[in-house]
Amino acid sequence: MFFLNNILGATKDTIPLTPTHLNNLTYIKLSNGLYDCLYITKETNSEPSMDCPREWDFDTIFHADFNNSTNAGNVDWNLDSVSHLIVKRRDTSKFQWITIAVKEIHALEDFSDGIKGNDYTNASHVEYEYAIVPVLHGTEGLYHTVFVDSQFHDIFLVEKNCIIGTPSSDGFCDTTRRVPSSVNETIHNKYPSYIRNTLANYDKGNCKGKFIELDEEHCDFSVADALRVPYQRKIMDFLADGMPKLLKHFDGRIWLAAVTGDPTDTANGTYNNRDISFEWTEIGNYESERDLYNTNLSDVEEEWWNE
């Protein structure tokens, strides 16, 4: 500061440039000239130079080299730094992530096409966090996440390429927890011995529902025999195909199960008011990437598992 021709508190910061406030830049215009490049970065410690940087880094905001295009993004740089894109999911009440999709990156089009598909391994009444993660030869990059509140109102049976359901108003699932054990009575003891010599601890049960096809044109269920009978035969074939399935209940229960026993199609009151029922047994953990892969419900191979 100058006061009456004297410098008060003279230091290297005594006469700094007046700070200038800039709002966020949202528009840049170049005109009336020939330009080799336009480069904007968050890094402020480097010395000014007439040489335009050739590569992107994590501080780069904008880099247009005007090489037959006005592209100023980092897609080309990402192509060099990303070998795969993966999609992960986790229950927000837990820390464990599950990889549900993997895509190998070879060309720019692989970014623009993205990863398309539906996640049918989710449970109802659960908040999930989904993340898309760039990977370079096994090393993960930043997680880009979104939160999804999972809700549905039917009972569903899911295979990798097929899903069927029945309205919750017409269906139910009853369960029994199977804990194999035995009780042995001996001659000289008042009380029996309890023996449990296995770690087996799983659910089994039975489900019943209408399993009627929805007529999407009229937003109604197809109850006419000509439509109902072929569809319900497909349901019976689906239940009897021997493939593991995810059984998902609208109240939040979910199992990795196999249909056991004989599916039945019975009349309820009238001949065309049919109930399809089946017994099932839990055969794995629906949150285990290994179990989902081994039962052909996931294509994600072991190198991408989070276990």
Protein model, in words:
There is one protein chain. Strands 11-10-18-19-20-15-12 form a 7-stranded antiparallel sheet. The termini are far apart. The chain has 3 domains: 15-73, no CATH class; 80-148, Immunoglobulin-like; 152-288, Elongation Factor Tu (Ef-tu), domain 3 (Beta Barrel). It is mainly beta and 307 residues long. The protein is built from 4 helices and 20 strands. The chain is 11% helix and 39% strand. Residues 1-5 have low confidence and may be disordered. A hairpin with a 2-residue loop joins strand 7 (126-136) and strand 8.
Distance between the termini: 64 Å
The proportion of strand residues reads 35-45%
Helical residue percent band: 10-25%
Basic shape: elongated
Major sheet: 7 strands, antiparallel
For the largest sheet, list the strands in their spatial order: 11-10-18-19-20-15-12
Structural class computed from helices and strand pairing: mainly beta
Query: What's the average pLDDT?
Result: 84
Helix/strand order: EEEEHEEHEEEEEEEEEEEHEEEH
CATH C-level label of the largest domain: Mainly Beta
Per CATH, which architecture of the largest domain? Answer: Beta Barrel
**Low-pLDDT segments, ≥5 res:** 1-5
DSSP, total strands: 20
The CATH topology of the largest domain, please? Elongation Factor Tu (Ef-tu), domain 3
Please count the helical segments: 4
User: How many domains would you count in the coordinates?
Assistant: 3
Radius of gyration: 31 Å
